[in-house]
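Let us practice reading a record.
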Amino acid sequence: MSRQVVRSSKFRHVFGQPAKADQCYEDVRVSQTTWDSGFCAVNPKFVALICEASGGGAFLVLPLGKTGRVDKNVPTVCGHTAPVLDIAWCPHNDNVIASGSEDCTVMVWEIPDGGLTLPLREPVVTLEGHTKRVGIVVWHPTAQNVLLSAGCDNVILVWDVGTGAAVLTLGSDVHPDTIYSVDWSRDGALICTSCRDKRVRIIEPRKGTVVAEKDRPHEGTRPVRAVFVSDGKILTTGFSRMSERQVALWDTKHLEEPLSLQELDTSSGVLLPFFDPDTNIVYLCGKGDSSIRYFEITSEAPFLHYLSMFSSKESQRGMGYMPKRGLEVNKCEIARFYKLHERRCEPIAMTVPRKSDLFQEDLYPPTAGPDAALTAEEWLGGRDAGPLLISLKDGYVPPKSRELRVNRGLDTGRRKTAPEASGTPSSDTVARLEEEMRKLQATVQELQQRLDRLEETVQAK
């Protein structure tokens, strides 16, 4: 009688633990827009989520510790004139967030420490170049102030936020139809895209060349998602011809056949993949699902190993994923998701059960830190570099000089779009304000004269 050997893995028993009610964000009105993005972005300081807004587009930014019921009059970021479709925090500055909208613009915002006290309507810089709605915004993982956006005009633009200019353009000759997803490689040298024409492409954005492509990675007609994983592989999620959801792993050098292809279920929601390069675990979250599946990727066949599934009663409207430096390492937390319900945001901690409360070095190898490895000019000049790694052994402490160093690049864009936003007002601004003051004084004098005449009339009667 043969015995089945169970594969040894330290992540076999990872389990999801939803936060208690007082640690959730209650009474938030999550956007009803039908778009396949996560609608939520998280970093060690803030949680941001796209919310319902009348007469434009808005998203909510809350300090991470401000849990409980959210006041209905809480200030939002509300500079867009149409619904917001995607948001992304800058990996090199925890106070900077980018948003893409149906109004065809990308805006970059700076959130003050402690959160907003007034509605934020003026972005640091507005990036205009798309002719249709912008549904994807992704920051470069290692180069400072480099932002990628993809619109429904089938164009990908790479921006230097410091100058507010589009420095690279991948036109509709590369993607002839709607772009479903874009993901940077770990060193930012390549991007991986999925498109409505049923092709997944690996692209060198600085040259504008397609390095490799795969036609129909999944046979179904529903949207495909693709992300880079470890060792030059990509992972895709899609649908079979019979509308069964699938996950597949591919070697970018040999895209003829997948390394692994697994069928999951017959739900209709698009699976959003989140990959953790430190543990080689990929998490699959479906919009409309009530579960999170997770798989471990290894270098030997069968390459993709199902670990487990976190299930809950309520379906998810969106999902945010916390960077590794925002986790509680003393509790062996290896991932944390922020699940959007219809009117609530619920943190879910993924934990490895360990008896010791000491730092577990095997669970927390050096991870990507908040410092950029390259400037925008160096990356555009052809240099590539992996992320600068930090140890989480003593916890994550953000450097004090961060905002000065990062914001110098952003100030250039601010000066281009709003000269009076910082520093001494220009002479034109002073003259305009003086003219407005004179008009106000004349109006006050006229109102006073009318009031005097009215009093005289009343006294005469």
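A brief commentary: Confidence is low (pLDDT under 50) at residues 403-424.
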